[in-house]
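Backbone-to-sequence.
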């Protein structure tokens, strides 16, 4: 019995170490960790989608969907809209994919900079200031007038937000809303 427990512990430790190393590799490569938004921020972001979604909006896109919690929430809250999560880091992507089984969330293993945003109506992000600066030109070129970007914590370099929503809690943060 002790042998089985020891073997299982060893297997779990090796798997955990492997996943951690892989995540570390992707964090270095992509410039941001796969830390998820807190439930409080996620809930507020859902309210903001509700507030900003207009007639004619059809697609929510989450750039860097991590472990898939926010994309899953969006599918649950807005079943009449199509939600797509884009993620490049392997294990978060696979986990998001599993989470999408049996519901309509689309999860894609892609680079956010290569993903075509011309059909995106509501974009969700929790990335970094550097990513937001890098994405500003792409979004300005590709997004349709009336598209909305809801970004937790990080803001564009030049474009001014239409609204800033402060949140208090374990981590004080802000959500930035941009209407194109
Ligand atoms: C801080 S996490 C946010 C996760 C999720 N959006 C949430 O709010 O819970 C940022 C995610 O963006 C992903 N990411 C960063 N750069 C990316 C890129 N160029 N292409 C695809 N995913 C990227 C990271 O792998 C990471 O999982």
């Amino acid at each position: 019995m002790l042998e089985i427990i020891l073997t299982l512990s060893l297997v779990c430790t090796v798997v955990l170490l492997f996943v951690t190393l892989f995540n570390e590799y992707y964090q270095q490569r992509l410039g941001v960790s796969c830390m998820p938004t807190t439930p409080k921020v996620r809930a507020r972001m859902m309210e903001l989608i509700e507030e900003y979604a207009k007639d004619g909006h059809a697609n929510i896109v989450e750039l860097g969907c991590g472990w898939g919690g926010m994309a899953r929430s969006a599918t649950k809250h807005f079943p009449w809209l199509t939600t797509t999560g884009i993620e490049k880091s392997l294990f978060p992507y696979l986990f998001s994919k599993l989470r999408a089984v049996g519901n309509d969330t689309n999860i894609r293993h892609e680079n956010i900079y290569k993903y075509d945003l011309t059909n995106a109506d509501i974009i969700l992000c929790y990335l970094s200031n550097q990513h937001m600066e890098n994405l500003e030109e792409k979004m300005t070129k590709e997004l349709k007038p009336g598209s909305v970007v809801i970004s937790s914590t990080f803001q564009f370099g030049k474009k001014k937000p239409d609204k800033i929503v402060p949140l208090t809690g374990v981590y004080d943060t802000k959500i930035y809303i941009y209407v194109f």
